[in-house]
């Protein structure tokens, strides 16, 4: 069973850590008119209090940020950011509701309501598939009274044809990494391809020249968004340990998570008779070895074709650590013999 994705926490952490970079990449015109010498002020508590009556059942991320502009006016710009997978039936009306409430609460400040849609599909027509940003609207007409509210929407899927550009932007803007990870998470199914891409992105963090703190922050996002099924977690853990040793850098988040999960599982065994506990542990260990062997066999047949008898014999005799090491090698192996070298 795969762990549940923690997109909400990942996106909240991302906006808090990289809000200027977020604006630079997705709203460059607005970014150019903000005085970044004054740190952005995050007003999440104010936003939650304002929208408390509509918060129940939400499945999206909201941020309210106050920034100072360069035009010399005393008025601040409030930027409300909503991030969700795709449009739903209440999307435009909800953005209008935010706008009205915020404008009523802060009448003296300028206001930008910005939506970011992260998932594939949505309500766009095919002709707009390559657009990154456009406007959506909410309108109503009652008798002779009416209103039309427009707001900008960023479609992250519009970046998919520009993946090479994102990789070039990554060393200069860490938010480009976030977009890359989100696009991979939307496209890759759970399995070896996702594992390989996740390991590759972790390796890139060093190659792109990020500071230690940035690497740890981005690692947490990669780990949360590109979640893996339980049988692939040991392979990823082994890869992270190898990367840590190569670059003398500790990415503790994923390893701690895996260890805590194992400790919780072991805690469930407390109170049972010693004999039953030992038997269960032996069964679990055997199951892990069997699962690792099946995974490696699937990877080999997918990449090199039918498994030869000599390779099958090596797999049957191997322990869990060895199987995980071979599963890691196959990601870069050009010949079957390289896996077992």
Report on the architecture of this protein:
The chain folds into 3 domains: 7-122 and 132-160, no CATH class; 189-272, no CATH class; 288-341. The protein has 341 residues and is α/β, with parallel strands linked by helices. It has 15 helices and 6 strands. It is 53% helix and 14% strand. The longest helix has 31 residues, at 274-304. Helix 1 packs antiparallel against helix 9 (212-225), helix 8 packs parallel to helix 10 (233-247) and helix 12 (274-304) packs parallel to helix 14 (320-329).
Write the layout of secondary structure elements.
Layout: H1 7-17, H2 19-26, H3 28-32, E1 41-42, H4 44-50, E2 61-68, E3 76-84, H5 91-105, E4 110-117, E5 133-142, E6 145-155, H6 163-169, H7 174-187, H8 192-207, H9 212-225, H10 233-247, H11 252-267, H12 274-304, H13 309-317, H14 320-329, H15 336-339
Parallel strand pairs: 3-4, 4-6
Antiparallel strand pairs: 1-2, 2-3, 5-6
Brief digest:
This protein has 341 residues and is of the alpha/beta class. It is built from 15 helices and 6 strands.
Features:
341 residues; 3 domains; single chain; 14% strand; alpha/beta; 6-stranded mixed beta sheet; 53% helix; 15 helices; elongated
Helix-residue proportion: 40-55%
Average per-residue pLDDT, rounded, comes to 80
Distance between the termini: 31 Å
The multimeric state of the shown protein is single chain
Describe the global form: elongated
Largest sheet: 6 strands, mixed
- Major sheet: order of its strands? 1-2-3-4-6-5
Which structural class should the secondary elements be placed in?
alpha/beta
β-strand amount:
5-15%
The counted number of beta strands is: 6
Write the element-wise H/E pattern from the N-terminal end onward: HHHEHEEHEEEHHHHHHHHHH
Total number of helices: 15
Radius of gyration: 24 Å
**Total domains, how many?**
3
Regions with little confidence, pLDDT below 50 for 5+ residues = 55-59, 122-130
């Amino acid at each position: 069973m795969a762990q549940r994705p923690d997109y909400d926490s990942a996106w909240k952490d991302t906006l808090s850590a990289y809000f200027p970079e977020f604006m630079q990449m997705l709203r460059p015109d607005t970014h150019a008119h903000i005085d970044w010498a004054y740190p952005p002020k995050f007003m999440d508590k104010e936003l939650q209090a304002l929208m408390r009556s509509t918060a129940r059942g939400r499945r999206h991320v909201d941020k309210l940020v106050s920034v100072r502009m360069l035009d010399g006016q005393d008025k601040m710009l409030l930027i409300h950011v909503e991030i969700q997978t795709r449009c739903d039936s209440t999307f435009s009306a909800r953005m209008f509701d935010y706008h009205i409430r915020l404008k009523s609460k802060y009448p003296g400040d300028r206001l930008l309501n910005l939506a970011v849609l992260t998932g594939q599909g949505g309500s766009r027509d095919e002709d707009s598939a390559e657009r990154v940003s456009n406007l959506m609207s909410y309108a109503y007409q009652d008798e002779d009274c009416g209103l039309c509210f427009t707001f900008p929407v960023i479609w992250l899927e519009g970046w998919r044809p520009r993946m090479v550009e994102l990789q070039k932007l990554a060393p200069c803007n860490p938010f480009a990494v976030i977009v890359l990870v989100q696009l991979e998470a939307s496209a890759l199914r759970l399995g070896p391809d996702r594992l390989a891409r996740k390991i590759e992105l972790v390796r890139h963090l060093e190659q792109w020249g990020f500071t230690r703190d940035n690497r740890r922050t981005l690692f947490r996002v990669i780990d949360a968004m590109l979640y893996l099924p339980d049988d692939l977690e040991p392979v990823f853990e082994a890869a992270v340990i190898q990367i840590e040793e190569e670059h003398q850098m500790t990415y503790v988040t994923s390893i701690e998570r895996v260890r805590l999960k194992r400790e919780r599982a072991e805690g469930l065994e407390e109170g049972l008779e010693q004999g039953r506990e030992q038997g269960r542990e032996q069964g679990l260990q055997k199951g892990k070895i069997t699962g690792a062997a099946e995974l490696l066999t699937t990877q080999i047949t997918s990449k090199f074709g039918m498994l030869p008898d000599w390779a099958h014999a090596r797999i049957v005799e191997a322990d869990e650590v060895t199987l995980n090491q071979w599963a890691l090698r196959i990601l870069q192996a050009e010949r079957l013999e390289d896996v077992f070298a």
